[in-house]
Amino acid sequence: MNETRNRFEYNVAILGGGSAGYVAARTAAAAGLRAVVIENGAEVGGLCILRGCMPTKALLYAAEVLHLAGHAEPWGIRAENVGFDFAKVMARKNTLIKGFADDRREQLASGKFKFIRANANFLDPHSVAVSNIGPLTAAHFVITTGSTVAPPPLPQLYEIGYLTSDDALKLAQLPKSLIVLGGGAVAVEFAQFFARFGVHVTLLQRGEHILREFDTDAAMEIEKVLRRDGIEIFTNTELTDARRDGQLKTISFQHHGQPVSVSAEEIFLAMGRLPNTASLDLDKAGVATERGRIVANEFMQTSAPHIYTAGDCTGPHEILHLAVQQSEIAAHNIAHPNAPRRMDYRLLMAVIFTEPLAAFVGLTEKTATTRGVPYLTARYPFSDHGKSLIMDVRDGYVKLLADPQSGEIFGGACVGPVGGELIHEIVAALAKRMTVHELAALPHYHPTLAEIWTYPAKALAERIPAP
User: Fold this and answer.
1) 55 near 46, Cβ under 8 Å?
2) Domain 2-148+274-344 CATH superfamily
3) What pLDDT digit, counting tens, does each position of 185-205 carry?
4) What are the residues whose beta carbons fall under 8 Å from the beta carbon of 261, sequence distance 6 or more?
5) Are 385 and 394 in contact (CB under 8 A)?
6) Which residue of the set 255, 385, 437, 446 is catalytic?
7) pTM for the full model?
8) In this predicted model, what pLDDT tens digit does every residue of 286-299 receive, in sequence order?
9) Distance of alpha carbon 111 from alpha carbon 113, whole angstroms
10) Does the annotation mark 317 as catalytic?
C-alpha cells in the first residue's frame, strides 16, 4: 500500500455511516488500511437504528404486550380495563434508540478510522468533494449511502399531506383513523401496530395479496389475522385520486374494476424506499446504476473496479444482515485482492414482525417455480401442536421445501409464534446442507415450539428415499 499512501490520502473512503458503512470501516481498519467514513445525516446511526429495525420492533412488541393483556381470558386471567399511555410507549422507544445510537456514535468516533460529518460527491474516480474540508482522495471507495422513502404515487398526496414511517415514529398522538398505502413489511407491521392501539385502519394493496415476496399461503394467513384485528384490506387496487374532505383525507381507487373511496384522518405511505444515490455524481466516478440502484457483482464491485458498494443503495435485498455481509466482503476484497470473497444469497431470509410473525429462508415455492427448481413440500399447522396449544396460538404453520431426489432442504417458512426465531433452525440446516432425513432424526425437546419442524421433515423423509 506504499503507492497508495503516496498517491492518495486514504486507502479506502466509505460514503455513509450507517450499519454497512461502520462495518466496512471496522473491517478495513482491522486489515491495516487507512480508512475514512463520511456521513451527511442530521443524526448518526443509520436507518436500522434510527428509523427502521429497532424503533419499529420496539413499538410492535408494545402492541403485542397490549394485545396479550387484553386477551388473557383463555388462561383464566382477568385483565379488565386494559389501557395504555401512548406518550410512555414512545418515550420507552426513544430511550432505547438513544442508547443504540450513542453506542454507534462511540464506535464511529473510536479513532480506528477517520470520521467526518459532511456531504460528499464524486469529482472523479478517485476523489470526492467534502462539503466542509474540500477535496479528498482515496485508492478505493465503499458506497453505503442507504435509501430514502419513495415519493407518493399520486401528486395530490403532496397537497393534502401524508405520514411516512419516519413521521410515524415521531407521533405525539395517534390518529383516530388511518389509510395505509402498500402491502409490504412496513405497511403490514405499522397497520397492525396502529390497529392494536385502537386506530381504525384501512390497507390498500395493488397486488392480489400482501407480502408479495412470500408464498400466497403465508400472505393469506397474515391477512386473516389483520382482518381479525379489525383492519379493512383491499387488494387488487389501482389508486386514482387523493383529496381532502373537511377534516378527513380521501383516497379513491379501482377495486376489481369498480370505483371505491375510503376516508380517514391520516394517510400512511408505505410503498417502499429508493436508493439514496442521486446526489453522489456517480457518473463522474464511472459507477453504473439501474433506476438509481448501484450495480454490483458478487464481489461487491461496481462498474468502476476500485469502487465497492453495500446495503440498501445496491440491494438486491434491503435486509440488514445482508448489508453487513456485503460491507465485510467489500472491505475484505479491498484489503485482500488476491483472496477475494463473494456474496452467496442461498441463505436469503426475510422476517415480518407482525403477530403471528412470518419468516422464510432459502427458496419459497414462488421462487422455486420461477427458477424451474423441482421440489417437494410439506407443512404442519400450529393448531395441532402441543406447545402452541398451551400458548393458545392457533394461527400459522411451518413448511419445508426439499430436493425430490436427495432430500436436501432447499427452504423453510414459518408463520406463527416467534417465527423470526424458529426460522433460524432452518437457516442452520441450509447452511450445512442437511437433508429432511437428518432434520427428522435431530432430537428436539418436548414440549417446545421448535419440535414442530420435525413433522414436515418426517413427512418428506417418508416420501424421499434415504440417500
Assistant:
1) no
2) FAD/NAD(P)-binding domain (3.50.50.60)
3) 999 999 999 999 999 999 999
4) 250, 251, 252, 253
5) no
6) 446
7) 0.93
8) 999 999 999 999 99
9) 5
10) no
